[in-house]
Amino acid sequence: GPEGPPRSQEEAYAQARAALGATFSARKRRGGKKSTRAGKGPRVRVEIPLPPGVSEQAADEVVALLGDGSFVGIGTSLDVRFASPELAALAECPTLEAATPASPGAVLVAVSPTAADVPALSALVQRFDWAGAIVVNPAGWEASVDQSLVPFTRTFDIAYSFLPLSIQGLLGSTSNGAVFRSVEGEKTPAAAPWKIYLMDEDPPKQIAQMQKRPGDAEIETTLYNSMAQESPVNQGIRAVRSAGEGLMNLFPGRGDK
């Protein structure tokens, strides 16, 4: 698997593609031909910082993330659909609601579906004979999905997750952390641990590892304890925020494009 969290946007994309490739090749080894029956292909989630809002750049970055799509297997195409109608129009792709037929044996890529988009996504996954489905940056799935659809959302394994954090100290200092997980090199998706890193060190310093996804309180406690050990003067964290929107600034040279 990867040595640790990515240090650039390109590296994040490459790591995500490697994790997806590992998932699809593992499924092929285990399931052979039968695994491409309707809905039988892998269902995976990728969580990775992309530009917020509707812009040409946001559409372009999804293209950069997916690359040539070869990670799902040679000869298998990607069918990319956006939850946002505005982004779909910019990217010249269908929306999740569109009745556009799937190309046979394609892998569905659903970009940024919120909890409100899950019914449409569920219908789309059932409607065609997909060779798998990839969800990029689902929003609110843990908190707001209708109870009847929770079993459907749980069929998606988290293959790759990189969530930058901005940590604000009581004395006004700001440092960077991250929650990271990748299934690359693991026997099964469930075996991949979740890790918490301090990103200001080079290389990033791992301060915790757990089998289950850490919640906000657990992340804060872990960071607080680690930083209090490092610097008794700054024994306090005012806030830990997702820095996903600011990620383009963390990685030099991307923001001006």
Task: Describe what you observe in this structure.
The chain has 257 residues and is α/β, with parallel strands linked by helices. It contains eight helices and nine strands. It has helices spanning 9-31, 56-66, 85-91, 118-127, 141-144, 150-153, 216-230, 247-250, and strands spanning 43-47, 78-82, 107-111, 133-136, 157-169, 174-182, 194-198, 205-210, 237-242. Strands 1, 2, 3, 4, 5, 6, 7, 8 and 9 form a nine-stranded mixed β-sheet that branches. A hairpin with a 4-residue loop joins strand 5 (157-169) and strand 6 (174-182). Helix 2 packs across helix 3 (85-91). The longest helix is centred in the N-terminal third of the chain and has 23 residues, at 9-31.
Task: Give me the secondary-structure topology.
Blueprint: H1 9-31, E1 43-47, H2 56-66, E2 78-82, H3 85-91, E3 107-111, H4 118-127, E4 133-136, H5 141-144, H6 150-153, E5 157-169, E6 174-182, E7 194-198, E8 205-210, H7 216-230, E9 237-242, H8 247-250
Parallel strand pairs: 1-4, 1-5, 2-3, 3-4
Antiparallel strand pairs: 5-6, 5-9, 6-7, 7-8
